[in-house]
Amino acid sequence: MTLTLPSRRDEAWRWADLDALQAARAAPAMPVQAPPFLDLDGARLVFVDGVFDAAAGDPRGVVVEHLAPVTEHPLGKHTAGTGWSLTLGPQQAETCVQIVHVGTGGESHVPGRIILAADAVASIVETYVGTGWANRLTTIGLAEGARLMRSVRILQSAGFVSLREEATIGKAASLVSVFLGTGGMASRIDGTLRVVGDGGFAEMGGALLTRGEQRQECAVTVRHEALHGTSNQTWRAVAADRSAASLAARVDVARGAQKTDGVQSLRGLLLDRTATINLKPELEIFADDVKCAHGATVGELDRNAMFYLQSRGIPALRARAMMTRAFVADAIDRIGEDAVRDAFAADADAWLEGAA
Questions:
Q1: Which long-range contacts (CB under 8 A, 24 or more apart) does 325-330 make?
Q2: What pLDDT was estimated at residue 125?
């Protein structure tokens, strides 16, 4: 497939690991075992190299169909084809949906679509394992009072994962998306969330944990276009060895979007001074009655706290893991289902044991 990639000369892509993306496209095939589903009572879907495996799950209310999303995103526009969609009517609910993406090498492109009518409720858990280039675009439309919770685990051992989220959030609707990247792959999490209804709420955040020569990044924009909108972007990055993690978060407040409350919290933790963390918070405000704040800090583990834990008999490696786990906790604790939140915590703990 002919593919035109963005250039690092573009400010929005200057931290992207495009070399890793190219290498992932040609990754040799390898067998990969799909992870077991979490203990949740909901629809279950498995895509292997972008192809739906009908025998491996139970889609229930989720439909597998051809989608042709309209997007200008340079990677998302390649996802047209067979994908999945969830459409709910007023006051309907479809919770604990699990979608597992397995990559055995090469590239795959899958579109997803979520449309929730007034007061509908849904929760979705996506998991990425294997290798190769997994390229995904999820388009979301939330009508008045609709609520959506998305939890995404990026566990690929190698390759590249690019995730694009484009959402429209209506009056008093709520979108919460939480991402956790603990695999050995490179990644880019990319989103544009538009709050178009009064009182809409948008949250997108998570944690990126990197080691070795790995590079992960996120680039998210929330656009407030209505009154009394609220948004929250809480991202944490932990980098070890010679790896790099990059967090870019932006809030745009349109003229007339009064009473907007937008918060950005970007924090990075360096486990080794040879690692790199890039943070880029941005605000562009055209309304005059808003409350927007951002914070961006990078640091190392507190030596006094480390000494305190060790003086209480906790080994140094265990103390380091405990403090790092606490650092990322507020980025993943927004997950609603206990089983999903516990799985994310276990993923983070497994990474910390390997980095210790």
A1: 325/349, 325/352, 327/236, 327/238, 327/267, 327/269, 328/207, 328/209, 328/236, 328/238, 330/234, 330/236
A2: 97
Q: Strand pairing of 201-210 and 230-239?
A: parallel
Q: Is the alpha carbon torsion for 10, 154, 112, 83 positive or negative?
A: positive
From residue 140, give the alpha-carbon distance in Å to each of 62, 88, 96, 118, 167. 14, 12, 17, 14, 4
Written as six digits, the tokens of 212 are 């070795």
Interval 221-229 mean pLDDT: 97
Place of tokens 């103390």: 319
Average pLDDT over residues 107-119: 97
Determine the straight-line distance between the first and last CA of the chain, rounded to whole angstroms: 41
- 287 token code pair: 């309304």
Q: What is the pLDDT of residues 123-149, one digit of tens each?
A: 999 999 999 999 999 999 999 999 999
pTM of the complete model? 0.95
Judging by beta carbons within 10 Å of its beta carbon (0-12, 13-18, 19+), is residue 102 exposed, middle or buried? buried
pLDDT greater than 80 at residue 120: yes
Euclidean distance between CA atoms 71 and 74, whole angstroms: 8
pLDDT value of residue 221: 97
How many beta carbons lie within 10 A of that of residue 113, not counting itself?
A: 18
Q: How many CB atoms lie within 10 A of CB 316?
A: 12
pLDDT, residue 34, reads 81
Burial annotation 147-183 (CB, 10 A radius, 16+ → b, else e): bbbbbbbbbbebbbbbbbbbbbbbbbbbbbbbbbbbb
